Amino acid sequence: MSTLQPAQIKVFTFKDGLLARLAHDLRLSLGRFEIRREGTALSGRFWPDTLRVDGVVGKDGRVDVDGLSAGDKAKIQRNITDEILLTARHPEVTFAGALTPGGLLDGRLNMLGKTAPVRAPVRVEGDRLRAEFTLVPSQWGIAPYKALAGAIKLQDRIVVSLDLPADPASGSETTPDPCTWTGA
């Protein structure tokens, strides 16, 4: 009997700027979230203060978990929570939408008090549901993070990857109704 892999949300950031070669593309993991499906309706609650830096993404797509020191990871996390996502004032991100008959996730994401549309194809791969979509932070009023007077900055895009058990209870391809996926 195989062990069911837990639900995961990964966030990818991308470097930019004149001195981008000195910066890193990063993968982060969201530690606390709840996604609920009832019929075709989907809703989600996400706690951005639980984002953690997994490591540096190399040109080959592999994540180097030792590519940053613990101090650098902590500084990046503080910048995310304190300067970018302002989690003291906006502790929660929410999603409301639906799965279309064609397997498309279609809804609205509320972050930092602003709402913008989100669309992404959802795939069933074995016993997993997967979706990957690009968010443009400026849609929520988030300016790309800059360092060294803008010589190093982040692109105005992040990629969010959802990897959920198709059935949180049994791992089968049919998802019960209603169902909830959580990360904690």
Automatic annotation (TrEMBL):
Q: Where is the composition biased (Polar residues)?
A: 171-184
Q: Where is this region: Disordered?
A: 165-184
Xref: InterPro entries: Lipid/polyisoprenoid-bd_YceI, TTHA0802/YceI-like_sf
Q: Which residues does the UniProt record annotate as the domain Lipid/polyisoprenoid-binding YceI-like?
A: 25-167
Record's SMART domains? Answer: YceI
Q: Which Pfam families match?
A: YceI
Name of this chain's protein: YceI family protein
